[in-house]
């Protein structure tokens, strides 16, 4: 067993009498965690057999402002001649069928209708920036984030891209990356049996990044982060209704899984070093023309795998959401300064606890989880994917409201004219980070036609054997990954998952946690394609 770089005794020393001490309890950290395997390639994680995916799409939604459907990204794919196509004048069956076929909506990234959103597959995006009281335009427009979710009867595809910096090229890069990746993945999911195991699924996800990069370069886009996730049924899911979640991430758009009984965990924990403070201005990696005009920055490219139950919610966020749950950003804590042995820096107030990077990460998860639980109490029912998105967006808007109010105050603009230092000092004292905020979520389960159905209640009894893991024994079930007791203060359950004995990295092996600079391939050309046609990348 590997211990985290801080103990509960140390937490008590630096957070005594602080109202959120419970969130920093070491045992709570262990108890809340679930096994997440991660690395820089599919071979770094266990290989689990998957069942067939149902190609029937019941929901497909993208945004904001029609997301990947908008603009030249969609136009370059459907390739239809528009009004230039000639009509046949005859009324035979062939001519009528040709007219009907021509009048169908164009297929964009593998879907014909991207407006089919529902409570089980949803996304939301907003700007947290201030609005100019005169022009009514938001600072940072247009929103450079883009998201997409495609929900099939027993599987789901989610993707989120966050354009680096502001401007039209950043937004175009995000939409192009999303378009290329989703199109590539939909081709596999439509076949039903093209993803036999999780290693193949992760390989196809990496190929989707190649398609995304090619699409950005083809249309002349800027830089963007990209995170893509698949929720797929495990083999034998008809007897043991469990699902594998595979994801690949590049940049700072995290992927989370929220279990309504087990709590919230981050799947992209391997993309950043929890022992070092993260610079929120640096995404860590990006697609687009970074090096030499052709190569992306793959500094923190990460593959991850975990297991979940029906009813769990898979969600992807931009850093505009995740960073606003950081306790330092919320002005609940100050960064831990190792040079001063946990003492706050001189220009920071002393009435807030100093937190290490790992403490900030865990506390941020707890804050996010608390928002979801509060929404559950408010609704008096289990939150859907739509409820999850709306709760997180409402929360980050509330966190940043004071900053917007200060910047949008016309009297302040006159009063503080020429006094930028005064304004900067006021902003530093206020919580929140102004950014574009995007969330996309999918409720994992077997869809029966009712978007308000509770998957966890209709799932079969979980009594079948568990999924095998290479190296002997059986893999963890999401229902028994955490054998610790929430009410027993002496619980000493080991956090090392069953993969630890097999030499597989997992999020519960903290001292073996990867550094964000040590596992990146040199280029996307190093990714090997398996059983794919050349036109699967980009036409």
Automatic annotation (TrEMBL):
Q: Which Gene3D superfamilies match?
A: PPM-type phosphatase domain
Task: Identify the stretch(es) annotated as Disordered.
Answer: 486-516
Q: InterPro entries, per this entry?
A: PP2C-like_domain (IPR053287), PPM-type-like_dom_sf (IPR036457), PPM-type_phosphatase-like_dom (IPR001932)
Q: Which domain of life is it from?
A: Eukaryota
Where in the numbering of this chain does the PPM-type phosphatase domain appear? 125-444
An example of a Pfam family matching this protein is: PP2C_2
**Protein name as catalogued:** PPM-type phosphatase domain-containing protein
